[in-house]
Amino acid sequence: MTDADRSSEKIHYICQTYVGTKAGTNGQAGLKIGKQFEYSTASEAISRAEREALSEDCAGADAYMITEDPASGEVGDPSFLVRLGNVPELADF
Asked: Which superkingdom does the taxonomy of this entry point to (predicted)?
């Protein structure tokens, strides 16, 4: 990848919350995405995740960053900044 290619990448900072789901037919409760917020800085995403994790209806929250290549639409794997509370395993992403 050239420097010009890297400079065209867009970085997204995301706060994503999770809520618990009721046990299904398999008898296991799970998690689903509650809310997603996008920010322009990592510190804003981390701060929001910390606040959301304190909420009574929030099981857990992640703050992470992903890079996007606007030319191709490809999105990289998430790089987690903070993971709080009950969150999915990394392999689930």
From this structure: Bacteria
- Span 59-81, pLDDT tens digits: 999 999 999 999 999 999 999 99
Cβ–Cβ < 8 Å for 15, 49: yes
Q: Report the domain count for the chain.
A: 1
- Asked if 11 and 73 count as a contact pair (C-beta separation under 8 A), the reply is no
What is the Cβ-side half-sphere exposure of residue 13, based on CA atoms within 13 angstroms? 13
Which amino acid would we find at residue 22? K
pTM (2 d.p.): 0.81
Q: 70 is in which domain, residue-wise?
A: 3-85
Unique residue bearing structure tokens 């910390």: 50
